[in-house]
Amino acid sequence: MLRRFCLYGFVKNQKYFEPFLYLALLEKLSFTGVGILIGFRELCVIVMEVPSGAVADVLGRRRSMIISHACYIAAFVTFALAAEAWWLFAAMFLFSIGEAFRTGTHKAMIFAWLARENRSDERISVYGRTRSWSQLGSALSIAVAALLVFMTQRYDIVFLLSTVPYAINIVNFLSYPKDLDGPHAGGVRPKQMLQTMIHAVREAFGNRGLRRALAEAMTFNGLHKTCKDWLGPLLSVIALQAPLFVYMTDRRREAILVGCVGIVLYFLSSYASRHANLVVQRAGSIRRGSRWLWRMNLAAFVLLGTGVLAGFGPIAVIAFIAMAVLQNFWRPIIVGRVAQHADESQTATILSIESQTKTLFTAVAAPLLGLTIGMMSPQMRFLPLAILGIVITSIMLATDRRDRPSNS
């Protein structure tokens, strides 16, 4: 089963459009428009995410994942064919349905399998291993995407090609055993869905350890999700300024730089995910490991700000890579912390709430960042990312209560 979980992550991350998403959107929208579009996506996910987790827990998690991937495929096709800006919003709506039905659901199946195998204490290491394969998938994805953009000098092809691996994953889900659907999976029972959702929300806000874990998930994950896709535009600026491959078109120079940096980033991220458990072991507890990652994240945002202020793009790129690596140490740890407090019958709902906190942060931050970045001079364009990160990480470190139990 673990191989199928790893296969899911590897195939799911064949999102060939992802490294070029903002560059593709900026062909049709302004910086502010991109921020609004991303905020629209996150608001749609917010509306659907927790109910979709309850649907997965009640109707069956495999069905939820199949619905998710079908919506992704429809979104990719719409992105590729979009001739006007309003079609981008239709594509983002379909994409948000896919996100809502996916987030939390597959992790719930992994944790259900671990519980069945009496291996629940391996949550961090097993999830880290599956996430490691996801990052290896991203490394392959960005290499393929860079090659496609280099050869065709078009962005639409990377959206269309992304439909193939998502169709493969639908076949993969059909091979999952039925007992991973969840203990209450069955027919349509709206009352039970509502009860599952209400109980999970009460638990999320009533459990002290879970409440803090969700707050940390919202800010750490939200910062990463809000900032990570701006790496593409930053690399585009560097590619146009650097005296390299000057005989090539701008788009081919972008493809080379995005591909090279992305491959390095995702191989390092894969290593981080696979070894996330080592952070906990060396720190002595999950809480201390989390605190160490917060400090390193603060240092990465300071480095980003330094690179922008110094006008030296490579420093800023190194900061983006460091943030991505830290996120991949962080993600298995925070998912393990949240799952510690969740009842097995509503794990997908609790993990959907965890994902929704990140979505809420991004829905607010993305439009504001898009507006602010659009108002900045080209040299200072990415400074708002650094300022936001420094402020948020400083607040979370200042509010961290060290008297909590060491395993919380």
Care to describe what's here?
The chain is mostly helical. It has one domain (2-398): Growth Hormone, Chain: A, CATH 1.20.1250. The protein has 18 helices and no strands. α4 (61-81) runs antiparallel to α9, α12 packs across α13 and α15 packs antiparallel against α18. The radius of gyration is 20 Å and the shape is globular. The model is unreliable at 403-408 (pLDDT under 50).
CATH architecture verdict:
Up-down Bundle
Oligomer: single chain
Question: Structurally, how many domains make up the residues?
Answer: 1
Sheet having the most strands:
none
Task: Report the top-level CATH class.
Answer: Mainly Alpha
Q: Report the count of strand segments.
A: 0
Number of helices: 18
Distance between the termini: 29 Å
Envelope shape: globular
Helix/strand/pairing class, anyone? mainly alpha
**Helix fraction by DSSP (H/I, runs of at least 4):** over 70%
Helix and strand string, N-terminal first? Answer: HHHHHHHHHHHHHHHHHH
What's this entry about, in short?
With 408 residues, the protein is mainly alpha-helical.
